[in-house]
Amino acid sequence: MNIKILKHFLSLADNLHFGRASEECHISISALSRNIRQLESELGVLLFLRDNRTVALTREGRKFVDYARNTRNQWDLVRHELMEEADQLRGEISLYCSVTASYSFLYDLLSHFRVTQPNIEIKLRTGDPEHAISHILEGKEDITIAARPEHLPRGLAFKHIAMSPLIFIAPLEQQLPNVPTTAPSSLEDWAKIPMILSESGVSRVHVDDWFRQHKIVPSIYAQVTGNEAIVSMVSLGFGIGVVPKIVLDNSPLVEKVRVLDVHPQLTPYNIGLFALDKNLHSPLVKAFWNLKAID
To answer: Which of 180, 199, 248, 264 sits most deeply, having the most CB atoms within 10 A of its CB?
Structure first.
């Protein structure tokens, strides 16, 4: 079975869109479609249900994803070990992180990596930080940069690179009567303020713990995906939000909001690299993992 066609299958399984998958694989849509039909012919089953608008995995396709990922990973591991013995590392590793993380950490990491490993190609995807760890656990990416949860899932490795405080932010100027520009003076006042919070993720866990410790039932105005959107909504005066300081520092709206002096402070973000323990045996992944951490 052609390993390249397996990679094409996995790209389509991840994207469920022929256009995006073909761009990712650097082939035409017709060539990708032909390769998928060839794979289905070899297996004797349909892997995808597709029409003019949608693409979906069949039951057989979902089962085949696990085989394809394991086969690709084993192939990459053997190939990389052989190249390491030949004193040359060539190939590709995939990296996922938020846009903020790409601004804050990737430049220094990749600058050093490019000098030490010029023949390794980085395939970078950016997206919501809440999805970072699931992308690793599902085998979609090799490495991600994200905040460390309180409990690490089994089989997941973490390497610290930085700390970032979690901060309360308010609009610079008061636009709605129930949205103050300073920290509330009492617990009763906190309960009346519309809050703009992350829908899920480490930030949401920490802020929920903070409210619980103070026996406050917050009035949630909006739950959003992505910390950058919280800064935008707060700057427009819709409520008070909670974001990592690193997000605010890199936001174009940093002058449109103010940081509230709230005590006790929220538990800070512990930011680092994530990878599957078993993938650290790959010389390519190990080369990136062993980069000097940023403090």
So the answer is: 248
Structural domain boundaries, residue 229: 166-267
User: Does residue 6 sit within a domain?
Assistant: no
Residue position matching structure tokens 């919280």: 230
Q: Give the start-end residues of each E strand in 99-247.
A: 120-126, 143-147, 156-164, 166-171, 194-198, 219-224, 240-244
**CA–CA dist 201, 129 (Å, integer):** 8
The CA dihedral of 72, 74, 80, 83, to the nearest 10 degrees, is -110
Q: Establish if 9 belongs to a structural domain.
A: no
Per the DSSP assignment, residues forming a β-bridge with 237 are none
pTM of the model: 0.68
Do 172 and 259 lie in a common domain? yes
Q: Across residues 55-77, what is the average pLDDT?
A: 89
Whether residues 186 and 208 share a domain: the answer is: yes
Q: Which long-range contacts (CB under 8 A, 24 or more apart) does 217-220 make?
A: 217/191, 218/190, 218/191, 218/193, 219/191, 219/192, 219/193, 219/194, 219/195, 220/194, 220/195
Within this chain, do residues 116 and 186 fall inside the same structural domain, yes or no? no
Residue 226 belongs to some domain of the structure: yes
* Six token digits for residue 292: 């000097």
User: How far is the C-alpha of 237 from the C-alpha of 233, rounded, in Å?
Assistant: 7
User: In this structure, are 254 and 202 located in the same domain?
Assistant: yes
C-beta separation of 241 from 231 below 8 A? yes
Written as six digits, the tokens of 86 are: 């030949």
**Alpha-carbon span 121 to 222, nearest angstrom:** 39
pLDDT at 293: 52
Dist. CA 287–CA 116, nearest whole Å:
9
CATH of the domain at 140: 3.40.190.10
Measured in degrees and rounded to the nearest 5, phi and psi for residue 271 equal -100, 140
> DSSP string covering 34-68, please?
HHHHHHHHHHTS--EEE-SS-EEE-HHHHHHHHHH
